[in-house]
Amino acid sequence: MDLTGRRLNVLMVAPTAFFSSYGGHIRIAEEADALRLMGHRVRVVTYHTGSAWNGLPIERSLTVPWRTDARIGSSRHKLAFDALLGVKLAQVARRERPDIIHAHMHEGALVSLPVHRLMRIPLVFDFQGSLTSEMVDHRFLNPHGPLYGPVRKIETIINNAPDALIASSQRAVRLLRESYGCTKRPITVVPDCVNPDFFKPSALDSAGRDALKAQLGIPPGRTVVAYLGLLAPYQGTDLLLQAAARTVRSRPDIHFLIMGYPGVDVYRSRAIQHGVADCCTFTGKIEYSDAPRYLALGDIAVAPKLSATEGLGKVLNYMAMALPTVAFDTEVAREYLSEWGVYARSGDADDLAQTITELAGDAPRRAALGSALRERVASHFTWQQAGQRIVDVYSQCLA
Are 210 and 222 in contact (CB under 8 A)? Predict the structure, then answer.
């Protein structure tokens, strides 16, 4: 179906505390903005808590009396949140009569199914990684326990229920096809993207950079290794600190700028245990609007994420900032960074340290890699390109 000139009414479902400055929230927000710039109407149905985003219409579910926050990751309390989200979705769908329901995450697809079937509204599922793998990563599910099989079966049903699926990587497509039997639904790759006009090396001038470094207590003359994201074992934060301890033994002029949350106090204590407290700065949560300024302090970026099924959107921010990027050698990392990434053996803190050390000592290589990565972002990973791919998926469903 040709949608040229047609203004679609899109209802996005976000089973999270939207908006927050991390992970999948960025994808949801930027997808919505890209669609709105194309002239489509977008409304987000989400949990009871979260922040506003760029004038985007947001509908929030009711809260539960015993839990007012929505924790990051898996939690038994999310069952109640999701039930209330489903009720809110039904109310909004009856009022708005959307053309498309665009569900993010498995819980979003699950609560969308009744509305999809009863109201005959096409459903698109934005797959951002395996549900069971995420629950194992968060240590919420035992891969050898009795609940693993039933949860995986539920995930299989969810994956096969929508009219079409969007995946963030080719690896995710193969996972859906081979592990979950999604052979009867179209799957379109819409990679995580970035706005290179917002994330740009000129986000801070030299004076501003020096002032922010002084404010954060980063000594002058240090080579700064920057990380921005959630702090958690599956994100590789523990391995990053182990690598930092090994790195500063040979290069005491390297400083690690670790930006993110939760568990800041826990990881600050671990830095003390590793003997690198004076070489690590923990900022806590960084608002998305401030991210370019803080990333501009980096000379090298690092992405030590361990999950093999989730996306790696943070590297696109690094790339747009022209930061040479060290990542564990995963298929998803190579999809983004290609030949211009610097790779360490996955899960190997020693190799991560060695890779960072070598790159820190080679300024010309850093400059060349950073420039190539920014060019790659402009060519392959902008939200304008992603928006058109999403509309093409909608067109398939409406046809």
Answer: no
